[in-house]
């Protein structure tokens, strides 16, 4: 009996060992990384201690309550944010449809083109939208034009990849069957590929529009128009209560847009 | 070909196979979307002439970027490291606070029912306000540097992780909690012996995902002065030093790519 | 009915895959106009590969396939699509477009006759009526406006038959058309297939696993073993000995 128990325990220990070893290793790695970052950034408990009351005072004295009477100031920037996000989404979708199709290895037989498509998407995706905005502001000047293009490029990177991944997952039997009736490449695309792709297409495109609202709200911080720009201006002028109002606008816009996109997405998916 | 009697008359047949109603629905949506597209374009003063001009100046600028200024590398490297460190601390801060707060936000664990609703509202707010805006606010409160960047990423992460973690706590098996409760375990014991082990895969994978996101954010936090390599973007573009600008972007790309490889590996190990 | 008029001539057909598998090792036989030819053979014998080569879905390695006077080997682009309109294909897993309606799936058979209008899915009223008639002959008139994913397996395969018939093909290739169906649906689908091919005077090549079905419907049977024709004859010639040869001889190694 005892013997048996001992054996079992030993086995239990053994079975847990590789997992535990890995866990231990991961914990050590995280601790080392934190210490390394702590030292590197000059992060310190006293700084936080000093910071907390300052943040508290800043919130209580400067931010609250928001200046509700300044709401009109943010009306136009909010609309501009919406326009940038929308136009950016449409451009990104158009661009990514092409990019996605040429990056799907089941639709394009030429490996080189597929790699090229995938490469372009990952490049566009890896450069943050704000970095695109900095470049575009330098090229075309301040304002929402730069922001729109920046958002479109960043979005195209993501959608190009997600579209391609979805396209690669479709049932090729249906594609093959239409090839077998003698349909042309474009006919196969719209009649066999598209019906299978549409649900994912709408899901990802709406999701991208949601993300675009967030991007559009911040590209203004580098001069590319919209709410970010007004927010930056308010803070530079020490109009913190106005800034709070602007933040509320951002929050409200995001909530409303997320609600509307969720509803329309469900409606469209249900009709497909 | 042999004729089979078509049991329907022409009108009935047409009605049967018609898709007109569906098509009308999509047509209306399409018209509305197209209208709103052109309306938005005109509101932003974007017209074909401007687009063409814009692309020609952009292509000039891109030409001027080459070759990238590799001389900047020794200066940019430490800043990239700083960005990574900001992301690490911001993520860890976010994880610690979101797990703690989720204990109080999850319906099945919270000691005070009303608190859960308030905390979920707090998560929604911290999630919706973008990281860069948080950075801007923290800069005003505590001054320029890495601290506002770390805090901004932390707060923004709490919003996302808090939502995910509290929902995953709520989804765990009821029996697990009841079983532990019946042994007389304390609230803390229930949490660490029952809830955490069951949700650890979710916690780990979302934490890694958030680290990926935070790396991207930390690379640009500097544009508002919250530390890291981001400021170099603004600096190079203000000085019209485009080869340096390209170099900054390349460093960001390498940084993001390297971290993504690492988290991808970690995710495979975790799974 | 049998006028022994050769519609398809396959000579010394060889097909190997990139991995090195030799799926067909020199297959030769003729298919006569108007007959229903059944191909039998153990799993991996090369039945699917053979059918896919006939309509150009797989490129052949060497040899020749002549369909109604046209050499399939090397056809490309428009010429290949032209050939495919003459060669209908039915698959084991139906391969109809699930998210489209039954009638749209039947109309897909006409795509090769449309250009841009086919891309947009705009078909003539005549074709729509014809699709309805064919579907009605397959007892699917109640399903025409349903989405294809709402159908049972047997119904789906009938839709696939309708699509193939809409092509007005000279020959119909069916690769294990009833392998994913239960026995009831299987004999029903084969019955429809047999009947409509006779009525439309379409030559058919059907690969089958079930010997009794083969005996019931075949005008002629060809047996494949590991890429080689090892049996050729009428249904009455496929006796137990021949079956033993085809299905169990080579299994011993396994
Ligand atoms: N795409 C391919 N790549 C490599 N080898 C293949 C491919 N398709 C088929 N093969 C090989 O070719 C041989 C013949 O396969 P085929 O699918 O034609 O057999 P089959 O007679 O249809 O079998 P089943 O009754 O199982 O459908 C098999 O050895 C198979 O592994
Ligand atoms: Mg097969």
Shape of chain B: flat
Shape descriptor of chain A reads extended
Q: How many distinct folded domains of chain B?
A: 1
The total beta strand count of chain B reads 0
> How many helix segments of chain A?
10
One letter per element, helices H and strands E, the order of chain B comes to HHHHHHHHHHH
User: For the report, how would you describe the main beta sheet of chain B?
Assistant: none
CATH class call of the largest domain in chain A:
Mainly Alpha
How many structural domains in the coordinates of chain A?
A: 2
How much beta of chain B, percentage-wise? under 5%
Largest interface: A-B, 67 and 67 residues
N-to-C span of chain B: 61 Å
Query: What is the name of the CATH topology of chain B?
Result: MetI-like fold
The class by helix and strand makeup of chain A works out as: mainly alpha
The assigned structural class of chain B equals mainly alpha
CATH topology of the largest domain in chain A: MetI-like fold
Secondary structure layout plus pairing:
The complex is a heterotrimer of chains A (272), B (271) and C (254).
Chain A: H1 2-41, H2 45-63, H3 75-102, H4 111-126, H5 129-140, H6 144-168, H7 172-180, H8 185-219, H9 227-236, H10 240-271
Chain B: H1 10-17, H2 20-43, H3 48-65, H4 73-105, H5 113-128, H6 131-142, H7 146-170, H8 174-182, H9 187-218, H10 230-238, H11 242-270
Chain C: E1 6-16, E2 22-32, E3 36-41, H1 47-54, E4 62-67, E5 70-71, H2 77-86, E6 87-90, H3 102-107, H4 116-119, H5 125-137, H6 153-166, E7 171-175, H7 183-200, E8 203-207, H8 211-217, E9 220-225, E10 228-233, H9 240-248
Parallel strand pairs in C: 3-8, 3-9, 6-7, 7-8
Antiparallel strand pairs in C: 1-2, 1-4, 4-5, 9-10
Helix pairs in contact in C: 5-6, 6-7
Residues 47-48, 175-176 of chain C line the site of magnesium ion.
């Amino acid at each position: 009996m005892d013997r048996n128990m001992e054996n079992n325990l030993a086995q239990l220990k053994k079975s847990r060992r590789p997992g535990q070893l890995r866990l231990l290793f991961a914990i050590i790695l995280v601790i080392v990384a934190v210490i390394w970052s702590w030292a590197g950034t000059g992060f310190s408990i006293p700084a936080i201690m000093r910071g907390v009351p300052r943040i508290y005072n800043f919130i209580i004295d400067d931010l609250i309550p928001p200046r509700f009477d300044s709401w009109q100031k943010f009306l136009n920037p909010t609309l501009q944010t919406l326009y940038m996000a929308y136009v950016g989404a449409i451009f990104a979708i158009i661009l990514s449809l092409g990019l996605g199709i040429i990056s799907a290895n089941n639709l394009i037989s030429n490996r080189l083109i597929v790699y090229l498509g995938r490469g372009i998407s990952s490049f566009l995706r890896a450069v943050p939208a704000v970095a695109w905005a900095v470049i575009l502001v330098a090229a075309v000047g301040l304002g929402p034009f730069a922001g729109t293009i920046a958002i479109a490029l960043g979005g195209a990177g993501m959608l190009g990849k997600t579209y391609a991944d979805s396209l690669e997952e479709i049932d090729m039997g249906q594609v093959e069957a239409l090839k077998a009736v003698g349909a042309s490449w474009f006919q196969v695309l719209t009649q066999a590929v598209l019906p299978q792709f549409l649900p994912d297409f709408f899901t990802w495109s709406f999701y991208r529009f949601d993300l675009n609202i967030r991007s559009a709200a911040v590209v203004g911080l580098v001069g590319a128009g919209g709410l970010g720009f007004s927010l930056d201006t308010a803070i530079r002028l020490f109009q913190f209560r106005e800034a709070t109002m602007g933040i509320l606008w951002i929050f409200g816009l995001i909530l409303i847009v997320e609600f509307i996109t969720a509803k329309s997405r469900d409606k469209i998916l249900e009709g497909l | 070909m042999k004729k089979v009697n078509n049991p329907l008359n022409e009108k009935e047949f047409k009605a049967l196979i018609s898709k007109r109603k569906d098509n009308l629905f999509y047509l209306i949506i399409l018209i509305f979307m197209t209208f709103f597209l052109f309306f938005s374009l005109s509101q932003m003063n974007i017209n074909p002439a401007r687009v063409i001009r814009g692309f020609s100046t952009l292509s000039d600028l891109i030409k001027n970027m080459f070759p990238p200024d590799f001389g900047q590398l020794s200066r940019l490297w430490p800043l990239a490291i700083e960005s990574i460190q900001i992301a690490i601390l911001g993520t860890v801060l976010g994880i610690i606070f979101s797990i703690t707060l989720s204990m109080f936000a999850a319906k099945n664990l919270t000691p005070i029912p009303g608190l859960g609703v308030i905390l979920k509202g707090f998560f929604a707010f911290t999630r919706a306000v973008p990281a860069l805006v948080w950075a801007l606010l923290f800069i005003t409160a505590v001054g320029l540097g890495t601290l506002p960047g770390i805090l901004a990423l932390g707060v923004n992460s709490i919003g996302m992780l808090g939502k995910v973690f509290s929902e995953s706590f709520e989804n765990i098996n009821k029996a697990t909690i009841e079983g532990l409760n019946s042994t007389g375990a304390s609230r803390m014991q229930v949490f660490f012996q029952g809830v955490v082990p069951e949700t650890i895969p979710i916690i780990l994978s979302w934490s890694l995902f958030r680290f990926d996101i935070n790396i991207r954010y930390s690379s640009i936090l500097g544009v508002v002065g919250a530390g890291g390599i981001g400021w170099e973007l603004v600096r190079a573009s203000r000085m019209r030093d485009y080869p340096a600008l390209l170099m900054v972007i390349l460093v960001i790309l390498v940084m993001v790519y390297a971290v993504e490889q690492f988290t991808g590996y970690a995710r495979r190990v975790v799974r | 009915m049998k006028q022994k008029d050769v519609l398809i001539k396959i000579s010394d057909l060889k097909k190997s895959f990139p991995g090195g598998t030799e799926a067909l090792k020199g297959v030769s036989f003729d298919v006569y106009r108007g007959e229903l030819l059944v191909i039998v053979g153990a799993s991996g014998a090369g039945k699917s590969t053979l059918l896919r080569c006939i309509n150009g879905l797989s490129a052949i390695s060497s040899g020749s396939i002549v369909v109604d006077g046209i050499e399939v080997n090397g056809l490309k682009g428009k010429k290949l699509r032209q050939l495919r309109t003459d060669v209908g294909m039915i698959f084991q897993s139906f391969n109809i477009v699930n998210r489209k309606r039954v009638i749209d799936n039947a109309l897909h058979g006409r795509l090769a006759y449309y250009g841009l209008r086919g891309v947009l899915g705009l078909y003539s009223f005549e074709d729509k009526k014809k699709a309805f008639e064919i579907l009605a002959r397959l007892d699917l008139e109640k399903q025409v406006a349903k989405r294809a994913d709402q159908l049972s397996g047997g119904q789906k395969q009938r839709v696939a038959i309708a699509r193939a018939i809409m092509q007005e093909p000279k020959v119909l290739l069916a690769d294990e058309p009833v392998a994913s169906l239960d026995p009831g649906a299987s004999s029903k689908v084969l019955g429809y297939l047999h009947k409509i091919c006779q009525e439309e005077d379409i030559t058919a090549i059907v690969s089958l696993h079930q010997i009794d079905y083969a005996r019931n419907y075949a005008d002629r049977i060809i047996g494949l073993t590991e890429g080689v024709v090892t049996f050729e004859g009428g249904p009455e010639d496929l006796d137990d000995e021949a079956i033993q040869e085809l299905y169990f001889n080579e299994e011993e190694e396994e």
